[in-house]
Amino acid sequence: MIRKKLRAVSLAILLIASGTMISGLKAASNGVAHHVSPQIANPPSPKKAEEQFKNIQVLKGIPAEQLLPTMQFVASSLGVTCEYCHVKNAFEKDEKETKKTARKMMEMMFTINQENFNGRRDVTCYSCHRGNAKPVAIPAVMTDDSAMAAAMPHGAPAETKASESKANNAKEAAGPTPEQLLDKYVQAVGGSAAIDKVTSRVMKGTIEFGGQSVPIDIYAKDPDMRISFTHMPGGESITAFNGHEGWLGTPGHPPHFMQGSEIDAASIDADLHLATHLKRMFTKMAVEGTERIGDHDAYVLLGERDVKPPIRLYFDEKSGLLLRLVRYGETALGWLPTQIDYADYRNTNGVEVPYRWTLARPNGRFTIQLSELQQNVPVDDAKFAKPAPPEGPAK
Ligand code: HEC
Ligand code: HEC
Q: What fold does the segment set 2-129 form as a domain?
């Protein structure tokens, strides 16, 4: 039953522009945002994992809402599905050896970080497993002659490498400051006055995933309201955020109310004035260097936030526009990344708006291509009305 449900929601999951991927196991949620990391106990303290689930031995004390994202982190790190460790429909059972090993591995990971990295999560399941159930202990031999050629131009590999990295550092040192990058971005979009004038955006297009392409309508309204309707053959899927609360709707299922990192992600996506809000979102900023994205060179800016995980922004060196945003969902073991690539910028009412974006996570990706976009048209607040919460626990 749970498995079926998980599969059914996996579509909705794929469509959501938020952090948490598993919504099939309905967590008892009051829909209130708890931006709380495991180390910080804020009143009212959120429900703990062991209070909501039946057999929690190692992950005691983490917020219940983080259990499923944590499981997603584990599955992605090992490149396996839930059944690799779990008995179908009985997640609390300890019948599989792999589940017991995973508990030991969690303890091991905590110890490694405690004893070697001041408790920072520098080593996670992914550090060793890299998407495989069995980590590799022995370095691979060279399988391709071209790698050999690349490794030793002019027969002096080590020196060449060193001077290359020096060149990169020099470039970094001479590069723009975080403030300059953010200012240039605001200018590139059209300037703060033009950005702040946008009160609504109504979009039509298609969403492409897994070889399918279906129509999608998106309505966004200031402040921070956004709803998308994906017209699936079997009915309409909804992803919505009303400025405070978010929910996902799939035909034939009770709504899933967003929690924790999902709410954080949805609020970022819903912000029509994100470009002018970035500076005040961050408590600390640093330019990490440059990276190539497709045909563009981009400056990488790391913006740190209070309590919440940081955000990485990639600005086109030439145009100054945002090419990529990477945000992270909090879990008990590490961060789950969501990467959004923006493209096809077009000028609409004096502001540059991406008409295409691709959202990718460890377990899925989709691309939205807009065909129509209107700004500052009336959008009724009723569009963002919250559905009634489901009665009792979901089946
Ligand atoms: C590599 C092994 C592994 C994988 C893969 C895995 N889990 Fe887990 N899961 C565990 C372990 C270990 C625990 C118990 C943690 C503890 O004792 O603190 C657990 C606990 C749970 C629980 C709590 C059950 C209860 O009532 O006590 C749920 C629910 C769960 N996992 C769901 C999932 C889902 C959904 C997936 C797939 C996305 C998944 N798990 C993938 C190892 C795994
Ligand atoms: C320091 C490296 C390291 C870290 C960190 C690590 N593992 Fe492992 N893991 C291993 C090694 C090595 C094995 C043994 C592989 C073998 O038996 O060949 C293993 C085996 C496992 C297995 C059993 C695989 C099988 O099929 O028998 C599971 C399950 C597992 N790890 C889960 C995890 C989880 C979950 C985490 C994060 C909490 C984690 N590991 C973190 C190194 C690591």
A: Photosynthetic Reaction Center, subunit C; domain 2 (1.10.468)
